[in-house]
Amino acid sequence: MRSAVGVWRWRQNPLRRRTDLVEAWVALAALVLMVLATPVLGSLCGARTDRVLQRTVTREQRERHATTAVVLRQAHQRSALADAEGVGGREGRIRVVANWTAYDGTLHTGTVAAPRRSAPAGSTFRMWTDDRGMRTSRPLDSTTAHAHAVFAGIGAALAAAGLVEGIRRLVVWRLVRRRYARLDRAWAGYGPDWGRAGAGS
Q1: What is the pLDDT of residues 79-99, one digit of tens each?
Q2: Rounded CA gap, 5 and 142, in Å?
Q3: Which residues of the chain fall below pLDDT 50?
Q4: Rounded Cα distance, 20 and 175, in Å
Q5: Which residues contact residue 84 at a Cβ distance below 8 angstroms, ignoring those fewer than 6 apart?
Q6: Mapping DSSP to helix (H, G, I), strand (E, B) and coil, where does residue 84 land?
Q7: Which DSSP category does 37 fall into?
Q8: Alpha helices, DSSP H, located in the chain
Q9: How far apart are CA 108 and CA 165, in angstroms?
Q10: How far apart (Å, rounded) are the C-alpha atoms in residues 122 and 72?
Q11: Residue 55 and residue 33: Cα distance in Å, rounded?
């Protein structure tokens, strides 16, 4: 930022090196990109992500159906692994054998993770199935999809800003190395005679 502001001050400075001016313009360009371009990129990425996710919401809400499962008995094994809906991932959740009616009216029986720690025989719980009656995850809702799109846009903007800053730092690093190389060459030209009487130093 200081380099970008100093562009105008360095115009008539006799001590200004060419690399100083390049560094200042690089800093100014990086600042402009971060302030103007990265928010636009984030907005475009978020909008595109939102369109894709909203199509996913429409498809999943059309293809997934809520039904009621009736517990027949507790399964013999406890499982810490999450099923498709992720209800069995916490310790203490149980797996049960249950009946449920699919969207097409067919009756299904299977072992599923109950959403509660206790599920005695005859109790019911809500679950989601696909068109074939197989258990699936809850369909994505529009609000959640929009939130994901917002986070994607913010992430894209931050990533773009990080890329711009990384490129700026790389350019500055190269400029500093070039300055040091010139200093080394200048020092090598005067160094051997440094401090010698009558060497003109």
Answers
A1: 444 444 444 444 456 888 888
A2: 45
A3: 1-9, 79-91, 201
A4: 8
A5: 135, 136, 137
A6: coil
A7: I
A8: 2-5, 18-32, 38-63, 142-190
A9: 57
A10: 6
A11: 32
